[in-house]
Design brief:
The protein is α/β, with parallel strands linked by helices and 289 residues long. The chain has one domain: Spore Coat Polysaccharide Biosynthesis Protein SpsA, Chain A. The chain has eleven helices and 13 strands. The N and C termini lie far apart (53 Å). The structure holds uridine 5'-triphosphate. Uridine 5'-triphosphate (UTP) binds next to α5.
């Protein structure tokens, strides 16, 4: 059986330019879906999957994330005094145990591959999960949990994949598929943001990965790819032949919360699942259209 996945990297060093001006002084990962920041959904998904250590790769202007996962003594005291027990529980429940979270800074946003490389000393020589908080996945069983269950059968590197429209391939890493067995798709190659005419399939990589530690050697080449950024998918592709690489077709609905439309759709979808919000939001939508 492959080594247990105990650690997860949360790269949160991006600039979030698609959400300016909201992200000028606030991290994109703190944008709320209904009432919970994106990054908390990602951490909860990791907890559900059995992750014990959380490694955040941050950057300038991201300290709100550190504060979010810490005590807020004044607020907690006030809530206690006012007998707001439910709210107090919500605030306290988001705090991990001391030493469970580590933070490192990317210093410069040179790309997702570079962000992952920055976490190398915290990961050491074991496999690690990566979660991009702006990819929010609504599912019965968390996406990472599903992936780890599959990983425990096959090991190697693994990327979450989903079908996209052909015209959307230029926004994603796209896989060249080999054998398909249930949810697992053998990946023969991976290409970052190909033009529609050059895309080998419409299977796109989204923000959940399981990576073997060898990836850090490749990332340390600092090879720039599409957009002049150090691309994680390029390094994963170069591991083909050295490690098995599988795409995992997860059960669930993914929202690209790094885009405005995905963010708005996620807010509506999550609100519709909430008992306290379903009816009023349904009524509002009906009235608007
Ligand atoms: P995006 O491609 O969404 O980039 O990054 P971005 O900068 O966050 O947002 P836009 O495109 O300017 O609006 C995908 C993920 O990779 C992380 C981001 O934080 C996000 O989780 N990332 C990206 C880094 O941590 N560092 C980088 O240098 C680039």
């Amino acid at each position: 059986m492959p080594l247990t996945i105990r650690k997860a990297i949360f790269p949160v060093g991006g600039l979030g330019t698609r959400f300016l001006p909201a992200t000028k002084s606030m991290p994109k990962e703190m944008l709320p879906i209904v009432d919970k920041p994106l990054i908390q959904y990602a951490v909860e998904e990791a907890v559900e999957a059995g992750i014990e250590e959380f490694i955040f790769v941050t950057g300038r202007g991201k300290s709100a994330i550190e504060d979010h996962f810490d005590h807020a003594y004044e607020l907690q005291e006030m809530l206690e005094k006012r007998n707001k027990t439910a709210a107090l529980k919500v605030v306290k429940d988001s705090i991990p145990k001391p030493g469970q979270i580590a933070y490192t800074r990317q210093l410069e946003p040179l790309g997702l591959g570079h962000a992952i490389w920055c976490a190398r000393n915290f990961v050491g020589s074991e496999p690690v999960a990566v979660l991009l908080a702006d990819d929010l996945i609504l599912s019965e069983n968390g996406c990472l949990k599903q992936m780890i269950e599959a990983y425990n059968q096959v090991g190697g590197n693994m990327v979450a994949v989903m079908e996209v429209e052909k015209y959307q391939t230029s926004s994603y890493g796209i896989v060249t598929p080999g054998n398909i067995k249930n949810s697992l798709i053998e990946v023969l190659d991976l290409i970052e943001k190909p033009k529609e005419s050059e895309a080998p399939s419409n299977l796109a990589v989204i923000g959940r990965y399981i990576l073997q530690p060898n990836i850090f050697n490749d990332l340390s080449r600092f090879e720039k790819g599409t957009g002049g950024e150090i691309q994680l998918t390029d390094s994963i592709a170069r591991q083909v032949g050295l490690e098995p690489l599988n795409g995992f077709k997860f059960d669930g609905q993914r929202f690209d919360c790094g885009s405005k439309i995905g963010f708005l759709e996620a807010n509506i979808a999550y609100a519709l699942r909430r008992e306290d919000l379903r009816e009023p939001i349904q009524q509002f939508i009906q009235k608007m259209i």
